[in-house]
Amino acid sequence: MFILNNDTPVPLYQQLYSQIREHILAGKLPADARLPSVRQLAIELATSRNTVEGAYQELYAEGYIYSKPRSGYFVSALDQEAAPLSLLKKPRLRSSLSTPAPRFDYDFHPARLAPKSFPAPLWRKLFSECLRETSRELVQYGPPQGELNLRRMIQLYLERSRGVVCDPEQIVICAGLQHSLDMVAQILKGSHSVVAVENPGYHLPRSVFRNHGYEIVPVPVGADGLDLEALASSGGTLAYVTPSHQLPMGCVMPVANRLKLIEWAESGGRLILEDDYDSELRYHGKPIPSLQGLRPRGNIIYLGTFSKVLSPALRLSYLVLPDSLLDAYRRLFHDYFSTVSLLEQRTLAKFMEQGHWDRHIRRMRAIYKKQHDVLIRAVAQRFGSRAEIVGQGAGLHIVLQLPGISLSEAEIISRAAQHGIGLFPFSATCAAGEPAATRLLLGFGGMSASEIEAGIALLSRLCF
Amino acid sequence: MFILNNDTPVPLYQQLYSQIREHILAGKLPADARLPSVRQLAIELATSRNTVEGAYQELYAEGYIYSKPRSGYFVSALDQEAAPLSLLKKPRLRSSLSTPAPRFDYDFHPARLAPKSFPAPLWRKLFSECLRETSRELVQYGPPQGELNLRRMIQLYLERSRGVVCDPEQIVICAGLQHSLDMVAQILKGSHSVVAVENPGYHLPRSVFRNHGYEIVPVPVGADGLDLEALASSGGTLAYVTPSHQLPMGCVMPVANRLKLIEWAESGGRLILEDDYDSELRYHGKPIPSLQGLRPRGNIIYLGTFSKVLSPALRLSYLVLPDSLLDAYRRLFHDYFSTVSLLEQRTLAKFMEQGHWDRHIRRMRAIYKKQHDVLIRAVAQRFGSRAEIVGQGAGLHIVLQLPGISLSEAEIISRAAQHGIGLFPFSATCAAGEPAATRLLLGFGGMSASEIEAGIALLSRLCF
Predict the structure, then answer these.
(1) pLDDT tier at B79, thresholds 50, 70, 90
(2) Nearest by CB: A167 against B93, B128, B166
(3) Listed residue (B240, B292, B236, B222) closest to B262, CA to CA
(4) What pLDDT is recorded for position A68?
(5) How many CB atoms lie within 10 A of CB B402?
(6) What's the ipTM?
(7) B106-112+359-463: which CATH number, 3.40.50.150, 3.90.1150.10, 3.40.50.170, 3.30.460.80?
(8) Residue numbers in A near B115 (CB within 8 A)
(9) B32-67 pLDDT, tens per residue?
(10) Is B411 exposed, middle or buried, given 0-12, 13-18 or 19+ CB atoms closer than 10 A?
(11) In chain B, which segments carry CATH 1.10.10.10?
């Protein structure tokens, strides 16, 4: 009835256990059937009593069999309807998974950073130091709100570089903007239900808030950023904004509008979500100070990330909560753990503490300024008066307006892809469908100067 | 009016910018006041025109001043009401933040692992290799669902060790159970609103689902795990269960109950959330196979973690979605990024691929078995017949029932703390307040044999 094989690494008792189990699940051993005694079965299979005893103990522990004192083991009554037809029938590996993302010769994706820019040797050194210092702490959970030293470093950096005034206690370390917003959406759910977002604007906040049951109201963006009159009549009580560098249009919200926006928030218990995602990257003059710094005790949640200057793959971001929300944060999340690796938090804290972060920003700013300037020149040369550049001078992308173009965005993207050019659709930033005019969003962070020049030359030929 | 200081590292144009800006915000320079010409102010301050030009450009870029052609720069009209009173008044550092967590001589916290168990040298080596191989990929986002190779390794491990039958496409890499459940709560929100949880049971799932607006219904746990009749009448359409090792009581759900639970789920479009958190740690016989393996195409979401055997601080977990939920997952999260560092995912994948994970499990099982056995002996010796041990033989904790005790849980915990003993409250696992009888939850993962012996000796004296 059962066959034991000495030539496999699977222990004999497990082989026997599996076979009896399958017989029970398949109904071949009916409910209340008595199993042979340990001695009997051991003789029958020419194996040791330990083998049979081990198998019976497993079956007993999992409830496949029950025991009666001095009578032996019996098969438990199982619901055969519910039993699996095939226990280990492996589903086929679906092919969709293994399809690699398409590679482009010229990839204008706006979230790509310069290919060789990650400070790998330094990161390895700091990581190794942290691992040596930390390995005994890895056996327990880290601080729920994030490493205190990292929060101190971020506080100092934000004060120095962004004019943000806060206490490390207001800072929460998060695993990327989406995770930051996930927390914000939960904190505010009781008191808010409608989020005003910039249109065009970053698509991720729309998804996150929609997934948390919020209504999303798109508010138009003009030359000065979010249209404040439209905001006032939008019905939104939260406003997600990118005032230092509007995503995707690149404009800076003037200070008069900033103060009005702060006033809007304070006059009605409303809240501003200030996403300062790439404020480090400004190529003329110094970075625009934050909104939060204008009103440190205001109704502003400040969001920052390391994805635009260090790496999007490490998943390191933070949020600065106003004092008024700290209680709600603690009430909701007091059982929660940090979602960011303690080792990476410590490595980053060391990176900042030793001044590498500031140096890295300066280095990256110089690199991206060059790439930016090459792109601007290439567009001027190849598109000439047929394109107007919007949002230059900062960040990792520009927008091209092409008033005379007859092709739709989808047509351009498809043509471009056929010629090895990757374009991120501008329409993805629009809250409702495609924009009226065809625009191109051109990221330059991941491209060399020669790729930018060749890519723009090719693209200009495809557009007209 | 303005003072420039050559002895600070702050560039002169920034000093001037800041001072003019403060004058404007403080109302000392009223709206529409004309600023001195660049040449005038440069002479007045005995500085270069570039300095003044730089300051004006910054102020202009941020909207503090406007320009009229051939007339110069003028102060913008700002809402003075909204202007900050003090721009950089630093809030005091609140003391609560810097209070370190209390340290105990004997810490019975159930989530602590053996102090020297993290495989640091190996992890450093594999991490360094991954960094070398990956550094050029760190400049863009990693795969949203997690590294394919890590998902393959997890799939193989789950099939081999847990009987889980799935495809890597069903696996999502997450930053800990709480993040896994965050996603699950969002996926199921449209079709479910009531979650049945084990009582006593892990407190984190209750918090996560409550934060997502679910109603939580506690269902009692008996010797066979979740009470299935109580479940059927609970009104819950989701059931969060720990069938291989009930948290905290340690019982195993017998296969007859498992099949009934599967039937419960399938008969009414209900869902089982199977948390298999520490299934690797079973000290007699082999691990109990998973529920998911009994019905691979059933309504089961399988949840696993690396927090119990490798490290809780690295934040590495996964969920296995049934085919029926993959569309909903993709629909909700198609804009989302992974929340787990690509470097740590790759390091873990290598760790598993090279067989270190299996070896590490065996090593940890041997270590914890010893600590477990020491604890059982110490309790028997010190508590004798006054304590009944529940849930032994697996995991990282046991439960003591103390029928004759007159002290409340709070009294014991407070006394214990005074004597250097840290106890995690059993009542935290109870859905509604304290349990009827006083129970102690004793984790042994983070303690040496001698600490366990001394701690139990001391604790037994405090209890009676």
Answers:
(1) low
(2) B93
(3) B292
(4) 83
(5) 18
(6) 0.85
(7) 3.90.1150.10
(8) 136, 139
(9) 888 988 888 988 888 888 888 888 888 887 788 888
(10) middle
(11) 12-96
- The CATH T-level fold of domain A120-354 is Aspartate Aminotransferase; domain 2 (3.40.640)
Q: Which amino acid is at B284?
A: H
pLDDT computed for residue A80 by the predictor: 55
Residue A242 identity (one-letter amino acid): T
Nearest Cα of chain B lies from the Cα of A161 at a distance, in angstroms, of 12
Residues in B closer than 8 angstroms to A147, CB to CB, are: none
Residue B144 contacts A, CB cutoff 8 Å = no
Q: Tell me, what DSSP letter sits at residue A158?
A: I
CA distance A222 to B139: 31
A residues 435..454 contacting B (CB < 8 A): 445-446
pLDDT in tens, A99-112: 445 679 999 999 99
Task: Tell me whether B156 touches chain A (CB under 8 Å).
Answer: no
pLDDT band at B389 (very low <50, low <70, confident <90, very high): very high
Which residue stretches of chain A have pLDDT < 50?
A: 82-100
Mutate to test the interface with A, among B62, B88, B178 (most CBs of A within 10 A): B62
Cβ–Cβ contact A72 with B under 8 A: no
Phi, then psi, of A282 in degrees rounded to 5: -130, 130
Cα-based distances in Å from A135 to A346, A413, B125, B445: 12, 49, 14, 16
Give the whole-angstrom CA distance, residue A322 versus residue B198: 36
A139, A178, A335: residue with CB nearest B337: A178
> Which residue in the set B140, B253, B445 is minimally distant from A446, CB to CB?
B140
Instruction: Name the residue among A64, A90, A175 with its Cβ closest to that of B175.
Output: A175
What predicted TM-score, i.e. pTM, was given to this entire model? 0.85
**A7's tokens:** 């030539």
- The H-or-E segment that residue A356 falls in is helix A356-383
A380-417 as b/e, with b when 16 or more CB fall inside 10 Å? eebbeebbebbbbbbbbbbbbbbeebeeebeebbebbe
Residues of B (290-309) whose Cβ lies below 8 Å from A: 293-296
CATH 3.40.640.10 residue ranges of chain B are: 120-354
Q: Which phi and psi angles does A385 have, rounded to 5°? A: -80, -5
Tell me how far CA of residue A201 lies from CA of A204, A244, A374, A379, B265, in angstroms. Answer: 9, 13, 25, 23, 42
pLDDT (tens digit, 9 = 90+) per residue, B249-266?
999 999 999 999 999 999
What are the residue ranges of CATH 3.90.1150.10 in chain A?
106-112+359-463
Instruction: Please give the structure tokens belonging to residue B381.
Output: 């010796």
The residue of chain B nearest to residue A22, with distances taken between CA atoms, is B294
Look at residue A84 in the predicted model and tell me its pLDDT.
Answer: 47
Residue-level pLDDT at B257: 94
B12-96 fold: Arc Repressor Mutant, subunit A (1.10.10)
Taking all residues of chain A, what is their mean pLDDT, rounded to a whole number? 90
pLDDT digits (tens, 9 = 90+) for B405-452: 899 999 999 999 999 999 999 999 998 766 677 899 999 999 999 999
Structural tokens at position B305: 């973690």
